[in-house]
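> call design_seq(struct)
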C-alpha cells in the first residue's frame, strides 16, 4: 500500500484534515506544509503528541510511528482531495472572477441553503491550500458544493479545477488586478477562462452574465454553447434609487417567472446587482422557490468588510476595504456618487500588486474621484502619495497617520466611502468614523 492509499484509508475512518497544529484534534491527519516563512515538518512531533492519527511529512529525516513520508506534502494534500472528490456524486459549482467572487459565493450559498444542505468555501480559502481543505471538509451527506477559486498567476485556475472538478462554472467578471502575476489584462482573461475550459471538457454548464462582453467573448472563443444566462437586461432588472431611508441595493424585475418581483438586500453598491442576479439564476436552476430566494437575499448581511454599510454616531459609512483593484475602485466610487445625500468623503487606500501599471491606475482613480464630485478625498499609501501632487486631496502614507488625523479632525454628518487593498489596513480607522 503506497503512502496516499494509507492516508486515504485513514481519512475514510475519520475525515478530519489540518495543516495547523493549533487547531488539531485527536484522530486528525496533519499535513506538514512549507511556506516562505515556515516549515510544517518542524511541527510533526507536536502533531503526534496532540493525537494526530497520521502526520504527513516531506522531510525524510522525520521517522516514527504514524509518520507518512511523501515527496511533496502540498501535492499529497491536493491528491487526497481529488480522491475524495471522485467519491462525491453531487453538483459542484465552481466560481472565480476579478471582483465579487466571495460575495457571490455567499449569496449563492444563502439561496441554495434554503432548500439543500450546502458545503462551500469558508471565507476566502480559495487557493492551492484552501480549495483542497474545503473539499476535504465536505460532509458525505452534502447535497451541493460551492467552491470559490482565486488566482494570482497563469494556470492557477487550471490547477484548482483539476482538484474541485466543477460541473458548473461561473466567472463573475474579469478586470484589472494582479498584473504582477498575470502580466496583462489578456493574462487575466486567459487564467480566469481556465474555468470555462474545464467545465466544457466535463460537458458541464456555465452561468454567464450576458451583458459582460468579455465573458461572452471568452465563451464564444471556446465554442461553449451549454450556457445559462443572467444579467440586468436578461432579467428585466431595474436598480432602484438609493437615499438615507433606502441605502441598500434593491432591484425590480420584470421578465418571466420573476415579473413583478422586487429583491431587497443588505448590500451596498449597484455593482452587486450582477452578483445578486447570479445567485437568483442559480437558485432557479436548482428549483429553489422564488419566495425562498427573496427571503434568503434579504436575510444575508455581509460581515467581512465587503459591501457593508455602517451607521455610526456621526456618519453613514460604506465599508469595502477587504480588497481593491482599478475595476472595483471605479465601481465603488461610481456607486458612491449615486447616493442622494449631502457631504461625501472618500477614503481611498492603495491598490496593490499592479506592477508597472500602478502609477497610471492610481492617477486614474484620483481623476475619477474629482470628476464625480466627491466633496473630500483622503488618500492612503505610497502609491497614491507618489502620484498625488497638487490634486486637492489629503495624503497619508499609512492608515496609522490617517487615524491620528481623524482623532484631531473628526468627520461628521457625512457619507463616507472606505475602499482600499487589505494590506493598507483601512479597517483600523473604522472606529474613528
Amino acid at each position: 500500500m503506497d503512502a496516499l492509499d494509507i492516508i486515504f484509508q485513514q481519512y475514510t475512518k475519520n475525515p478530519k484534515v489540518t495543516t495547523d497544529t493549533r487547531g488539531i484534534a485527536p484522530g486528525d491527519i496533519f499535513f506538514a506544509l512549507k511556506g516562505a516563512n515556515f516549515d510544517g515538518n518542524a511541527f510533526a512531533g507536536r502533531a503526534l503528541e496532540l493525537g494526530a492519527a497520521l502526520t504527513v511529512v516531506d522531510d525524510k529525516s522525520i521517522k516514527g510511528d504514524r509518520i507518512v513520508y511523501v515527496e511533496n506534502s502540498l501535492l499529497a494534500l491536493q491528491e487526497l482531495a481529488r480522491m475524495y472528490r471522485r467519491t462525491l456524486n453531487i453538483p459542484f459549482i465552481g466560481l472565480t472572477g476579478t471582483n465579487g467572487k466571495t460575495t457571490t459565493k455567499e449569496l449563492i450559498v444563502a439561496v441554495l441553503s434554503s432548500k439543500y444542505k450546502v458545503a462551500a468555501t469558508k471565507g476566502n480559502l480559495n487557493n492551492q491550500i484552501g480549495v483542497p481543505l474545503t473539499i476535504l471538509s465536505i460532509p458525505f451527506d452534502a447535497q451541493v458544493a460551492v467552491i470559490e477559486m482565486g488566482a494570482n498567476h497563469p494556470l492557477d485556475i487550471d490547477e484548482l479545477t483539476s482538484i474541485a472538478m466543477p460541473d458548473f462554472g461561473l466567472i463573475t467578471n474579469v478586470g484589472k488586478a494582479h498584473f504582477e502575476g498575470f502580466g496583462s489584462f489578456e493574462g487575466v482573461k486567459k487564467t480566469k477562462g481556465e474555468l470555462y475550459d474545464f467545465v466544457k471538457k466535463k460537458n458541464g454548464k456555465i452561468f454567464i452574465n450576458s451583458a459582460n462582453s468579455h465573458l461572452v467573448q471568452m465563451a464564444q472563443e471556446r465554442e461553449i454553447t451549454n450556457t445559462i444566462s443572467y444579467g440586468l437586461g436578461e432579467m428585466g432588472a431595474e436598480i432602484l434609487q438609493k437615499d438615507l431611508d433606502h441605502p441598500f441595493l434593491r432591484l425590480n424585475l420584470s421578465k418571466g417567472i420573476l415579473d413583478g418581483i422586487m429583491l431587497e438586500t443588505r448590500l451596498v453598491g449597484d455593482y452587486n446587482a450582477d452578483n445578486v442576479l447570479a445567485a437568483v439564476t442559480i437558485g432557479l436552476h436548482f428549483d429553489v422557490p422564488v419566495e425562498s430566494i427573496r427571503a434568503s437575499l434579504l436575510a444575508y448581511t455581509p460581515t467581512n468588510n465587503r459591501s457593508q454599510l455602517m451607521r455610526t454616531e456621526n456618519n453613514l459609512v460604506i465599508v469595502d476595504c477587504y480588497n481593491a483593484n482599478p475595476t472595483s475602485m471605479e465601481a465603488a466610487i461610481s456607486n458612491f456618487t449615486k447616493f442622494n445625500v449631502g457631504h461625501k468623503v472618500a477614503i481611498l487606500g492603495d491598490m496593490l500588486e499592479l506592477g508597472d501599471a500602478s502609477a497610471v491606475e492610481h492617477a486614474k482613480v484620483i481623476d475619477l474621484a474629482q470628476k464625480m464630485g466627491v466633496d473630500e478625498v483622503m488618500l492612503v499609501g505610497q502609491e497614491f502619495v507618489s502620484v498625488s501632487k497638487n490634486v486637492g486631496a489629503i495624503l497619508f502614507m499609512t492608515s496609522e497617520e490617517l487615524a491620528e488625523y481623524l482623532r484631531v479632525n473628526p468627520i461628521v454628518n457625512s457619507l463616507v466611502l472606505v475602499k482600499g487593498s487589505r494590506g493598507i489596513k483601512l479597517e483600523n480607522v473604522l472606529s474613528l468614523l
